[in-house]
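User: quick one - fold this with NAP bound?
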Amino acid sequence: LKLSSHNLCFLGYGNVNRSLAELLLDREQELRERHGTSFRITGIASRSLGWIANAEGLDPGEVAAQPPSGANSQDRHSQSDVRSWLAAAKCDVLFEATSLNVESGRPAVDHIRAALEHGAHAITANKGPIVHAYRELRDLAAARGRKFLFESTVMDGVPIFSLFDQLPAIRLQGFHGILNSTTNVILSEMEDGLSFEEALRKAQALGIAETDASHDIDGWDAAVKTAALITVLMDVSVKLEEIGREGIRNLSAAAVRAARKEGRPYKLVCRATKTENGVEASVRPERISAMDPMARITGSSSYIYFETDIFPGLAITEETPGLYATAYGMLADFVRAVWE
Ligand SMILES: NC(=O)c1ccc[n+]([C@@H]2O[C@H](COP(=O)([O-])OP(=O)(O)OC[C@H]3O[C@@H](n4cnc5c(N)ncnc54)[C@H](OP(=O)(O)O)[C@@H]3O)[C@@H](O)[C@H]2O)c1
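Assistant: Sure. Structure tokens for the protein plus NAP:
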């Protein structure tokens, strides 16, 4: 097996990219022996850490432990200049995992564009760029002969987008599912007796809530995921405003408990159906029949059911994902990007 070596850069260094750095180091041997891929980490950036690059390699543990004025301050670059950071790191693969910007997807869109123009593959866990700039970034990547991959944006690292790479010429007619873990944890915990606030704190402690938890509670995260699936898998450009959206803020703990007791629990359900002129889509709390598999999706688990012309119903359940679930999708994207 011929070994290829790649310089990796991490933009955003929170829950997702930190666990990705750990997972990559944990799977170094498998990547080398099974996939002929080796790597070194040459760039790490976040608002609080600064923009750190060293083409000879960085020790992520050391970077995370040091204050911005620490010993490696000569490796730090100014924030406004993502391009010089990518160049100083001689970046081959950018892992973008900054916070979700629902309104514009920025600055993540600009960072991904800069990485592709620099000649790197761009891999993101951030849904903003898919909803706001998918076609542009896809076409730019193709023009530069690089990959723009985003498996971890929906259902952590479960192969959803890459599943459809294995289903050529199929027609996706619709889907429904439970795609936001934070609200599903909150609903399950409320069923078990916690208040809304206690349940939210539990979701935040699990590291699954968005930086701004109202993005989860008001259904934005679920709507953005729904839009990402429609954009990529149905090839329909949909604006977020076109997705009917209602969150779980107005559900009382008593109503949630009573619904479960009656055997028809509340779930925040994402739906999309292809129509003659486009797609009809919604995100809203629904009472689910006890017979529906969604009734059994509790806590941080998630679920999706695809309706295609070949397979009328094709469903995937992700049961209580571990810490590495999101990072794994980015690792798998890395292998897909460089495996040629
Ligand atoms: N957590 C999950 O389970 C999960 C699952 C799938 C997808 N995602 C997505 O992955 C992304 C990251 O999630 P996370 O849980 O890792 O979030 P997080 O822990 O809040 O980390 C976000 C990181 O991005 C940095 N950042 C934010 N805005 C920035 C900017 N303008 N320039 C540079 N750095 C910036 C933050 O830096 P500072 O802290 O220094 O400000 C922080 O290091 C989000 O888009 C999220 O939707 C998360």
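One thing worth noting: Residues 12-16, 45-48, 97-100, 107, 125-127, 152, 156, 207-208, 210-211, 326 surround NAP (CB under 6 Å).
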